[in-house]
Each structure stands twice: as C-alpha cells, then as structure tokens.
Structure prediction request, 194 residues.
Amino acid sequence: MSVLHRDEIKRRLRTGVDKLKSLVITPLLDENFDHDAVDLRLGSYFRLPAMSSVDCMRPYGSSDERRMEHYPELVHKPHGGKDSKLILQPHHSVLASTLEYLKMPGDVAGEILTKSSWARVFVSIASAPWIHPFYRGCLTLEITNLGNVPVELPVGKPIAHLVLMTVKGGKPDVDLIEGAYAGAVLPEAPSFKG
Prediction:
C-alpha cells in the first residue's frame, strides 16, 4: 500500500463520479487538505449511550436480547447557531457522523486518524478506523473523552484526518456497494454478524 498525495487525491476528486477510479468527498472545502490527508468535519448527528436504556448488551444473544433499536439514542445538533455543539463528559463516548459523504473506488482504502489538536485535549477519534474499498456514505466516528474535564465538540469543525491508500491488487475495474454500513448518512448502531 502507498499513501495518496494531495495531488492524486484532487485528481481523483475531479474524475467524473461515473468513472470507476473516481473518489467522492462532499462537501469538501479546499483548505481541508494536508500533503497526505483530508480533514473531515464533525457532522450534526450523534448516538449517545443512555446509561439506563439497556441493562446489558448481548451482541450474540437471542433475537430479543440483541434488540438495540433505541441504543444508542440518536440526537441531532443543527449546524450553525448556539446549539451546534455537543458536550462530551469525561470518560464518556459517543458515535458521531462526519459532515462529508464518501464514495471510495475499488483500489483505495482509508484510515481515520485523530487530529493532533484533539488528541492534546485527550479526545480520541475512531476506535474502528478502517474504510474499505467501495464504501459509500458518511463515516461513523467513535469519539471518546479520555480526559478529566468536559469537552465541547463543535458541529462542522475539523475533527479527524482521512489518509487514503492504494490497495495492491484492488479492483479498479469494478463498482460495488458492499458492507454492513454502506450508504449510511447517520452514525450507525452496531451490527453483529454470526
């Protein structure tokens, strides 16, 4: 695997969406680029784990035990205005979506990394950081406040880096939509297999 440079990312973004090697990241601001990564911004939807809503999560239990349609609870914080933020308490986690929607080609995978500015206030992003080829949708970020004070998460501000890599032996001549979370536009609750 090799990391895509900003010039290659921009070239793929300019490629028509109907082309197999095209990359889509939208909405994307020009200042969101580093030499080897794209900044992703915090979306306006969150899934908050309510402490009292589930007595115990049993991902591989019976169908009644696995019912988690209300866990974690979905919350919307509108973009812009005084309510466009979420306060994340110390030692708590939340699922959030990116503002950007992605379409990954078959020969590119991605990795989500915490921006160092957030890491320095003890916020960790993406405990499941891998984006597979062919993924379509907004990304779900797992955000944890590892610190001892509450942290304000502002909607629409950069929160993570997306590093893109070519996949050796990938399928650049195929177009698929696959995966348990493909097409997501909200932070997705878990889907356990097997």
